[in-house]
Write a structure and sequence with these properties.
- The complex is a heterodimer of chains A (268) and B (272).
- Chain A is built from ten helices and ten strands.
- With 268 residues, chain A is of the alpha/beta class.
- Chain A folds into two domains: 2-83 and 160-266, Rossmann fold, CATH 3.40.50.300; 101-159, no CATH class.
- In chain A, strands 6-7-8-3-9-10 form a six-stranded mixed beta sheet, with helices on both faces. Chain A has a four-stranded antiparallel beta sheet with strand order 2-1-4-5, with helices on one face.
- In chain A, β1 and β2 (18-28) form a beta hairpin.
- In chain A, α3 packs across α4, α3 packs parallel to α5 and α4 packs across α5.
- Chain A is globular.
- By secondary structure, chain B is an all-alpha fold.
- Chain B has ten helices and no strands.
- In chain B, α3 packs parallel to α7, α4 runs parallel beside α7 and α5 crosses α8.
- Chain B starts with a helix and ends with a helix.
- Chain B has one domain (53-271).
- Classes of the chains: A alpha/beta (268), B mainly alpha (272).
- The complex binds adenosine-5'-triphosphate and magnesium ion (MG).
């Protein structure tokens, strides 16, 4: 189980200080799929980066399996990292390695399996994401969607107990989205994997999630089962789910008034 | 660090405090990265986590074998140029047959190691920063960390070992090519008797010249790898930074190579 308590994080200093997460609290139950949804720049990836220990919170705690992990360093942090797999938003495949070596890397480094066993396991993982036969391609030769799927295969290479997905289905065709959704559900139902999914795709989030957390400007504005989110009365949640351009969530990120700013510029 | 170099010139006066704070931050960053690289490369294998030699071989081919042509060419031409330049002066003293001695000593002690290191700083240091910097911005370094793999051990150590082995090797070959270049001009254009040329050269050159040259090239290797890697690892943000830091990396490692050369040369001057 993952528990995040009062997480706060801001970037930059002084004038440019940007509060990205403000008092973020969440619980991700074991074996369940928790989705984090929210607009671009609302801090979703930042939450994930805290979970994997890439960022240290300004304040707050992160508990994974009963262990406070936000301040861990070195070997202790590596111990926790071995428990989870992560699929990055950009894929983050190693460009100098072939697909096979990418997926095999964690196995080669962290297990004593012999080479032929590893190759069989790589084949199995690639078959799961529907890309068996792509073993000898380099990441540069793959399409965006293929990169995502290889990244997923690499994330689950060591059969982790927890998997984090950053935008697993962004930029995929509807069929591939269906496949990935099914895969995420399968992993969590059959193997009891705890999944945290960051996504924009509302239909996909509705399909797969046990629990949905909606972020807006670094704060949680709604949290509950897909049904509860669907029936929410909060206008901001409604707007996001329906995807309507008009509503309480502004499209523009700017803090100052547009007219005022234009007037200011007229001084010369 | 470069901010300091330009800072000193550009913002002299008000930026001085800022610049020196930056400077010390960069220096200590470089120091810590070097320390953990040395630890990963030499101490950890003793604790039962042996280095993998596969990536080291790949890097040795990349930095060593593929650089040999340009290093050979440069040092050969340096030998030729030195022979021409010194011939004129030595001829006035009536000591033309000492061209070989001068070329040999200059190449072994100074120009062989230095030119090789400068060529490699441009060729290999830049490649290191560009490669690892790209990995940094595309989250590949983060991916390594989340797989509980140490980026230092994984990315820097193979490059470190490869250059530490290959730079001295290249230096020796550059020495030979340079001396050969001088010899060729000496016995043809300058018309010095080959036997006299060789004898004079051998008389002048000492084994300690070669050894000090090799010690220097080992130090240069450390500088090139560490500056190249550090400049890559501090990149935050986008691809534009990769370009900037690649340039910075070459400039800084060239300057540090020459500074180190000065330090070691004066050290050897007083010690030997
Ligand atoms: N390392 C950083 N330094 C400074 N600002 C950052 C950093 N990382 C994120 N931010 C800022 O934090 C905010 C949230 O970023 P984050 O990547 O978490 O958004 P997101 O919700 O994942 O968006 P998207 O859906 O577009 O991926 C953004 O405004 C971004 O500019
Ligand atoms: Mg994101």
């Amino acid at each position: 189980m993952i528990e995040i308590k009062n997480l706060k994080k801001s970037f930059g200093e002084g004038e440019k200080r940007l509060v990205v997460l403000d008092d973020f609290n969440a619980k991700m139950e074991k074996g369940q799929i928790t989705s984090i949804i929210g607009g671009s720049g609302s801090g979703k990836s930042t939450v994930l980066k805290h979970l994997i220990g890439a960022y240290t919170p300004d304040s707050g705690e992160i508990w994974i399996d009963g262990e406070e992990v936000s301040q861990l360093k070195g070997e202790a942090a590596n111990g926790v990292r071995k428990k989870f797999g992560i699929m990055f938003q950009s894929g983050a495949l190693f460009n100098s390695l072939t697909v096979e070596d990418n997926v095999a890397l964690p196995m080669r480094e962290h297990t004593d399996l012999n080479e032929s066993t590893i190759q069989i396991m790589v084949k199995m993982k690639l078959e799961m994401v529907g890309l068996r036969g792509a073993e000898h391609l380099k990441p540069a030769q793959l399409s965006g969607g293929m990169i995502k799927r290889i990244a997923l295969a690499r994330a689950i290479a060591l059969d982790p107990k927890i998997v984090f997905y950053d935008e697993p289905s962004a930029g995929l065709d509807p069929i591939s989205i269906g496949v990935i959704d099914k895969l995420i559900i399968g992993l969590s139902r059959k193997m009891g994997i705890t999944s945290v999914v960051v996504t924009h795709e509302i239909p996909s989030a509705m399909r797969i999630s046990d629990k949905i957390i909606m972020l807006f400007k670094g704060k949680i504005i709604a949290s509950g089962s897909p049904e509860e989110i669907k029936n929410s009365n909060d206008p901001r949640v409604k707007q996001f789910i329906e995807g309507s351009p008009d509503g309480p969530i502004p499209f523009s990120k700017s803090q100052t008034d547009y007219g005022e700013e234009l007037k200011e510029m007229n001084h010369f | 660090m470069v901010r300091l170099f330009f800072g000193f010139i550009g913002r002299r006066g008000f930026g001085l405090v800022d610049a020196s704070a930056d400077f010390f931050r960069e220096i200590s960053g470089l120091y810590y990265l070097t320390r953990s690289t040395l630890y990963c490369t030499f101490i950890e294998p003793l604790k039962g986590k042996p280095n993998k030699w596969g990536p080291v071989w790949t890097q040795m081919e990349e930095v060593g074998v593929k650089s040999s042509t340009i290093v050979f060419l440069v040092s050969f031409l340096i030998g030729v140029i030195l022979a021409f330049q010194s011939a004129h002066q030595l001829n006035r003293l009536g000591a033309l047959e000492f061209v070989g001695a001068l070329v040999g000593v200059a190449i072994l002690r100074e120009l062989g190691p230095l030119m090789t290191a400068l060529v490699m700083a441009g060729r290999v240091g830049a490649a290191f920063t560009a490669e690892m910097g790209t990995m940094k911005v595309s989250d590949e370094v983060l991916a390594l960390e989340t797989m509980a793999l140490d980026p230092v051990k994984f990315l820097i150590t193979p490059r470190f070992l490869a250059l530490l082995i290959m730079l001295p090797c290249l230096t020796i070959m550059a020495d030979l090519m340079g001396i050969f270049g001088g010899f060729l001009i000496g016995v043809t254009t300058l018309g010095i008797d080959p036997v006299v040329y060789v004898n004079n050269s051998l008389d002048a050159m000492e084994i300690k010249d070669v050894v000090t040259g090799l010690i220097k090239s080992g130090v240069f290797a450390v500088i090139i790898v560490m500056v190249g890697s550090y400049m890559a690892f501090i990149i935050e943000g986008g691809a534009e930074k990769v370009g900037q830091n690649t340039r910075t990396s070459v400039v800084v490692s060239m300057i540090l190579v020459i500074v180190a050369d000065l330090v070691f040369t004066s050290l050897f001057f007083f010690v030997f």
